[in-house]
Design brief:
By secondary structure, this protein is mainly α. Helix content is 64%, strand content 6%. The strands form three sheets. A six-stranded antiparallel β-sheet has the order 1-2-3-4-6-5, covered by helices on one side. A hairpin with a 5-residue loop joins strand 3 and strand 4. The termini are far apart.
């Protein structure tokens, strides 16, 4: 036998000897790479070694086995290690023994890791020293800390580290029936620890639940850096040997680790993905527990895991609370982390953490599911011979070539046609602003409405270019819509729809585009049934005729969500708008479209009283807008206004003023002092000032705002109504009831004229008028106005809408004033319950409802119920 083979046998013997006897055959089968004779020689040595006898009667290899055999030997008795008194043995592994000890002078508990029989294996001694060095440089709250290091008199090294009394993260989550959100928060803490280690150029290489403990206080600790490596040492030859490969847990190891290739930070990402899979589903992605080593390796390297949403166990409690869209995100997040292809895996733990944060905030993920093309390419690669035999590759190539040839030709023709239309519309725009005079430019006093009316006349002359004509009708219609000239907008969009039906047929993506715009117009008009019908039709058409990732499908989804938002069906709206955001994040949609969807999603969460979520989304939108438009753009101002409105709802009026004044500074610079956008911003600022009881300042701003809006739009515009309503609120807060009534009646008249009486803003103003009569103690008229508001809300918003809650509180107060106590109880309690689900308990309406309920129950002779609203138990009675 040559020396090389003998060295190989000795190396394998020492490694196998560290394992329990039951695991030795499978280890050798894998490590010997099919060399049966080599495996047999090592097994013979192991068998002879296992026969026992006095240590002095055997050769050194047999002595090594008896000392290293984990199951056969008890832990060496130790009573004292330096200043540490050993209390008990905690466990042992192939390399070291771990004891629980107490430092006598300080009284704190520690864990001491002692290298057993270091003299037998220099490699083991070096691994032990390496773990000690690595821990010494890692200082993170989620990584078990090293405190001290020393050696015994015989030179045996040990080190002292933090004692972690906890359970593996998987066991902790199951025992405590943790929600998915809680599991992700715990998992995120470990990711941060691993990310920190990577930042110190340390790769763990053996991440698994047993190395991640959760303490009773819910904090996590990452343990066991025994086979961790410094990044600069990962290319050493020792790390590429079969011996080195054994030092890992296969079920959690990345494919490159199993193959013995270079490992890096993405190897730890893979292991984290497996742990996440287990946390989400309660099962492992691959069951290799009863498989021979070779079969287990084939499964881990070649088989794709089931999606977590498909693999999760029926009795896995957290799964039942997740929606389909939430599971879709978790599937992508988890499978991207444990992707076999390094190019598709998260490039760093930081990227994984970002997507966890996106999920927890309800934001779209950065990761994307594998495309059909990717999966097809991987399939062909894995099954090339069989694919070649069946001729599938040839058929596929022919099909793809044909498909893309036709598609390229169509795209070329469409591009040429689009270029021609673009040129025609450019000429139209130039002619429009020339005003028909080649010498002089347009008058400085030319109003937008004048330009639009001229544009319609110009567009009507384009009978020979019906497609361009339809496009212009659509564009002009949307501009009229923004100016609240709904009749003109309706006429133009209907004309665009008719033209497109003639050109492309009644069921086409072009028709769908106009249907979506009509849906948004109907929503602005308060015609919600029509709006929802158009949105549904447009969305269905787009799905039939366009690929799922087409930007127009995302726009249709956005419009449907917007209509649902306007109807007050906020959970449905949030789901649709989330879908639009996900589509636009994954496709080639314009960034501005994505920003618009995110902004609307933030608005919907605001109306649903999810103020934290809305604020987080608005902050994200603000960052994107500043990157796209700069710091001084009107869209930036819009988002600052949204953030200010959130602060108003939370009662943080001083913070709201800061946001509103920043926005006002931008819009004044952009539009000037007499523009309607400036006026609207002044109205919002006045809201915050009213909250701070700076009524005179608020009233002055509101009067300026109203004057600007009337001069721009005339007296019957919804923006004027909004300013009137806020003037009424300020007057009502000051007790100037006649002024408040006048302002509210003016607003109500405008809203009824603009929205045909069914818009939720009509209900808001009716309810405010009810508030005026409540202050006058005219409870009968107050009741009538509030009931009118509730009737309006029933046609426009959900039954548990925030405004419905306020109206029912006011109705309860009106009924209480009439001593109709049982009716008052029903309304006050219903309003209280709605608002408690949507707002802070300190909200003035909740406080008002509580006070009214105390009076009601005292009048009814039910003091126990009254006590629940007097300040003790804030929950409503269930009766």
């Amino acid at each position: 036998m040559d020396s090389t083979r003998w060295d190989r046998i000795q190396s394998l013997f020492h490694e196998a000897a560290e394992l329990p006897p039951s695991e030795q055959p499978s280890f050798l089968q894998q490590a010997c790479n099919g060399d049966g004779a080599l495996a047999a020689d090592v097994m013979a040595m192991l068998s002879e070694d296992a026969r026992g006898g006095s240590l002095l009667d055997h050769d050194p290899a047999q002595v090594a086995h008896q000392i290293l055999e984990v199951e056969a030997l008890a832990l060496p008795p130790v009573e004292q290690l330096g200043p540490y008194r050993v209390l008990k043995a905690l466990g042992q592994g192939g390399m070291g023994a771990v004891y629980l000890a107490e430092r006598e002078d300080l009284g704190n508990l520690v864990a001491i890791k002692l290298l057993r029989d270091a003299w037998l294996s220099p490699a083991r001694r070096e691994r032990f020293a390496s773990e000690q060095r690595l821990l010494a440089q890692l200082h993170h709250p989620s990584i078990a800390q090293i405190y001290d290091a020393d050696s015994l008199q015989d030179g045996t090294p040990f080190f002292v580290m933090e004692y972690v009394e906890g359970v593996p993260i998987t066991a902790y989550c199951e025992q405590n029936r943790c929600s998915i959100e809680r599991r992700l928060q715990l998992f995120r803490s470990i990711c941060e620890a691993v990310q920190y280690a990577h930042g110190q150029a340390v790769i763990h290489r053996d991440l698994k639940p047993s190395n991640i403990l959760v303490k009773k206080d819910g904090s996590v600790r990452l343990l066991d850096f025994g086979i961790a490596k410094q990044v600069e040492n990962l290319d050493s030859s020792a790390d590429l040997t079969v011996t080195g490969l054994r030092l890992m847990t296969p079920a959690y190891a990345a494919p490159e680790q199993i193959r013995g290739e270079h490992v890096g930070v993405q190897s730890d990402v893979y292991s984290l993905g497996v742990i996440l899979y287990q946390l989400l589903t309660g099962v492992m992605p691959f069951d290799i527990s009863n498989l021979p080593a070779g079969e287990a390796e084939r499964v881990l390297l070649e088989r794709e895991p089931a999606r977590p949403s498909d693999a999760q166990q029926d009795n896995h409690d957290p799964a039942s609370s997740l929606s389909r869209s939430s599971w879709a995100d978790l599937d992508v997040l988890c499978l991207t982390a444990m992707h076999k292809d390094l190019g598709r895996r998260y490039r760093s733990v930081e990227a994984l953490v970002r997507d966890i944060d996106h999920y927890l905030c309800g934001e779209p993920l950065e990761a994307r599911p594998d495309s059909v093309q990717y999966r097809l390419r991987k399939f062909v690669t894995r099954n090339f011979q069989s694919v070649a035999v069946t001729g599938l590759v040839l058929a596929l190539m022919i099909g793809l070539v044909t498909f893309f040839t036709v598609r390229l030709a169509r795209a070329r023709n469409d591009a040429l046609a689009e270029a021609a239309r673009t040129q025609r519309i450019q000429r139209f725009t130039l002619d429009l602003f020339k005003g028909g005079d080649d010498v002089a430019g347009p008058s400085e006093q030319m109003r937008v409405a004048t330009l639009l009316d001229r544009g319609v006349k110009e567009a009507q002359l384009l009978n020979t270019e019906p497609q361009a004509q339809a496009d212009l009708y659509e564009t002009l219609g949307t501009i009229y819509q923004k100016l609240a000239k709904f009749d003109r907008a309706d006429s133009l969009l209907e004309s665009a729809l008719d033209e497109r039906k003639k050109l492309f047929g009644p069921d086409s993506s072009q028709v769908a585009e106009t249907l979506v715009l009509l849906a948004l117009l109907r929503a602005d008009e308060g015609k919600y049934d029509d709006a929802e019908q158009f949105a549904h039709q447009g969305f269905d058409m787009d799905q039939r005729h366009l690929p799922p990732d087409h930007p127009q499908v995302a726009k249709a989804t956005f419009a449907w969500g917007k209509v649902l938002e306007d109807r007050g069906r906020y959970p449905e709206a949030i789901e649709k708008l989330n879908q639009a955001v996900q589509m636009q994040s994954a496709s080639a949609s314009r960034q501005t479209d994505l920003v618009a969807s995110l902004s609307e999603l933030a608005n919907t969460n605001f109306y649903a009283a999810h103020y934290d979520t809305s604020e987080a989304l608005n902050q994200r939108v603000l960052k994107m807008q500043r990157e796209i438009f700069g710091d001084r753009h009107p869209q930036v101002a819009d988002t600052l206004i949204n953030l200010g409105a959130i602060k108003v709802q939370l009662g943080h009026y001083a913070e709201s003023e800061t946001y509103f004044r920043q926005a006002l500074d931008i819009v004044r610079e952009w539009y000037g002092t007499q523009h309607p956008e400036t006026a609207d911003t002044m109205t919002f600022l006045a809201q915050g000032l009213t909250g701070m009881k700076r009524f005179d300042e608020a009233a002055e701003l509101l009067k300026q705002s109203r004057a600007i809006l009337i001069s721009t739009y005339g007296p019957m515009h919804q923006r004027v109504a909004f300013a009137n309503n806020e003037l009424g609120v300020a007057a009502l807060r000051q007790g100037r009831l006649d002024e408040a009534e006048t302002d509210f009646r003016q607003a109500l008249s405008i809203y009824k004229s603009v929205y045909s009486g069914n818009h939720y803003q009509v209900g808001v103003t009716e309810c405010n008028l009810g508030g005026v009569f409540l202050e006058r103690k005219d409870y009968t008229r107050a009741e009538q106005f509030v009931r009118d508001a509730l009737e309006t809300y029933s046609k426009s918003v959900a039954a548990d809408h925030y405004n419905v809650g306020i109206a029912r509180v006011r109705l309860g107060a009106a009924l209480l004033g009439q001593r109709r106590y049982r009716e008052a109880e029903q309304e006050s309690l219903a309003g209280y319950q709605i608002l408690m689900k949507k707002a802070n308990p300190n909200l003035i309406w909740i406080q008002n409802a509580s006070k009214d309920l105390v009076q009601i129950y005292e009048a009814l002779g039910e003091p126990d119920k009254a006590a629940k609203f007097r300040g003790g138990d804030s929950r409503p009675p269930h009766s």
